[in-house]
Amino acid sequence: xxxxxxxxxxxxxxxxxxxxxxxxxxxxxxxxxxxxxxxxxxxxxxxxxxxxxxxxxxxxxxxxxxxxxxxxxxxxxxxxxxxxxxxxxxxxxxxxxxxxxxxxxxxxxxxxxxxxxxxxxxxxxxxxxxxxxxxxxxxxxxxxxxxxxxxxxxxxxxxxxxxxxxxxxxxxxxxxxxxxxxxxxxxxxxxxxxxxxxxxxxxxxxxxxxxxxxxxxxxxxxxxxxxxxxxxx
Amino acid sequence: xxxxxxxxxxxxxxxxxxxxxxxxxxxxxxxxxxxxxxxxxxxxxxxxxxxxxxxxxxxxxxxxxxxxxxxxxxxxxxxxxxxxxxxxxxxxxxxxxxxxxxxxxxxxxxxxxxxxxxxxxxxxxxxxxxxxxxxxxxxxxxxxxxxxxxxxxxxxxxxxxxx
Lengths: 233, 163
What we know:
CATH architecture of chain B: Sandwich
Largest sheet of chain A: 5 strands, mixed
Structural class of chain B: mainly beta
CATH topology of chain A: Protocatechuate 3,4-Dioxygenase, subunit A
Shape of chain B: globular
CATH architecture of chain A: Sandwich
Low-confidence stretches of chain A: none
Largest sheet of chain B: 5 strands, mixed
Number of helices of chain B: 0
Order of helices and strands of chain B: EEEEEEEEEE
Number of domains of chain B: 1
Oligomer: heterodimer
Shape of chain A: globular
Number of domains of chain A: 1
Radius of gyration of chain A: 19 Å
Number of strands of chain A: 14
Helix content of chain B: under 10%
CATH class of chain A: Mainly Beta
Distance between the termini of chain A: 16 Å
Number of helices of chain A: 3
Number of strands of chain B: 10
CATH superfamily of chain A: Aromatic compound dioxygenase
Low-confidence stretches of chain B: none
CATH superfamily of chain B: Aromatic compound dioxygenase
Strand order of the largest sheet of chain A: 3-7-4-13-12
Largest interface: A-B, 83 and 70 residues
């Protein structure tokens, strides 16, 4: 059945230029975005993406905390992330990219100039494929907070970057997952660019009962798209 | 049926892992009639941007999106000079659309993905038709190379779509 994409709700999605996030005023377009008709080009998508973007650090389940000879520094966590569409149907076999900084707040990327130490036993990048129930699992460590350069005291709360594909080109989702109970969540310019409190809350993972030595965090991602009778030109 | 609300989009940030963008910018593979699509991505005041992620989605030479021998999808990152490059094939016209390549842009400072479209000429097209500054979406051809600069904000700003 065809996929239908409905307009974004301005309360549950950021609007572009955001107070407290100076780069948005240099990069978000000054002209209004233009509404366009949707046809086959926008409502289709690559079917062989797992071939173009092969898994890194696991398949349905991955491990970033065991990259070196010893366990990575930090609090061991297990992330259970499920990908659904707007109808609540799980998306099996979809690509999920995950990246985050180490427990000291340092990314593996060479452009990160923060003076926090590198952890040789941690590698903060995984690309996984969802299983039959739309789920990926990742063992990793809880990322640290870090200061954003040249902002006069903005600290990013611990967060995990997520990139995921839905059924069609317009279902693409890039977002961030936050941890519950973090005081920095209250002031973060990125999380608080989302006006609706419920929509912000849905970006915060849920702490599940722990088994053994890992804290378990469960999270849900909803990609755009409903089954429906899209009008194809 | 009860509806789930799509998760809020958030910025890619500046540290998208380099290896995620490797080996995905060549869509043409063994096709002989390959073209290059290249350009510079800039912010306000024309400053070029490093590690911008661009993803494209296009039809095959016959205008089809379901060709098992041609993926139609690619990803590239800009270098320190703001330059991206794709190697691909020229898409055909399909279902009332002029030949075009869909672009998705992700970056630090963009809270949501930006969508634009590159066209090969000013042929009639229902998407190009809703844009005021049509010429900004038409690539400049030089041999097998098509130049398509993306100006996020400021003078000669690229038109972007809302979906």
